[in-house]
Design goal:
- This protein is mainly beta and 155 residues long.
- The protein has one domain: Glucose Permease (Domain IIA) (Distorted Sandwich).
- The strands form three sheets. The chain has an eight-stranded antiparallel beta sheet, with no helix packed on it.
- Helices cover 6% and strands 40% of the residues.
- It is found in: Cytoplasm.
- Keywords: Kinase, Phosphotransferase system, Sugar transport, Transferase, Transport.
- InterPro entries: Dup_hybrid_motif, PTS_EIIA_1_perm, PTS_EIIA_component.
- It comes from Candidatus Enterococcus willemsii.
Length: 155
């Protein structure tokens, strides 16, 4: 049966409701300098995190603050929730996927207690990093967006 909602392998969606910002605007020098790869970030308005791509889960960090994905087009994506949240050792994170799971733009990856992160003085900025972006480009629409909304393409 034809699926009207099938997404293209090179589309990238906003993983959370909130404000999409350039990766260079992130208040962390490692991410802002693109040392881990190109991408974008979201200043989230709630803690529901969805897959930004069609592909599969390649890793869930033991500290639950980051999830590795591989898109059907071969892009390696890291969804890094918050800044310095590795220090929380998983507190405040409820991961909803496991390694090997197939994902699309409607797949919930995690639910994060943003208020808890703020209480722990951890910025909630969530980065979407294309870790194998060398020689390629990622273009996304900046500004207010909703989770699961296509905001760009991986090229």
């Amino acid at each position: 049966m034809f699926n009207l909602f099938k997404k293209k392998a090179n589309e990238i969606a906003c993983p959370m409701d909130g404000e999409v910002i350039a990766i260079t605007e992130v208040n962390d020098p490692v991410f802002a300098s693109k040392a881990m790869g190109d991408g974008f970030a979201v200043e989230p308005s709630n803690g529901k995190v969805f897959s930004p791509i069609v592909g599969k889960v390649t890793s869930v960090f033991p500290t639950k603050h980051a999830i590795g994905l591989l898109s059907d087009s071969g892009a390696e994506i890291l969804v890094h929730i918050g800044i310095n949240t590795v220090d929380l050792a998983g507190a405040g994170f409820d991961i909803l996927v496991t390694e090997g799971d197939a994902v699309d733009l409607t797949t919930p990856l995690a639910v994060v207690d943003l208020e808890y992160l703020k209480e722990q003085e951890k910025p909630v900025t969530t980065m979407v990093i294309w870790t194998n972006s060398e020689g390629k480009e990622i273009n996304v629409q900046l500004g207010k967006s909703n989770a699961q909304t296509v905001i760009g393409k991986l090229k």
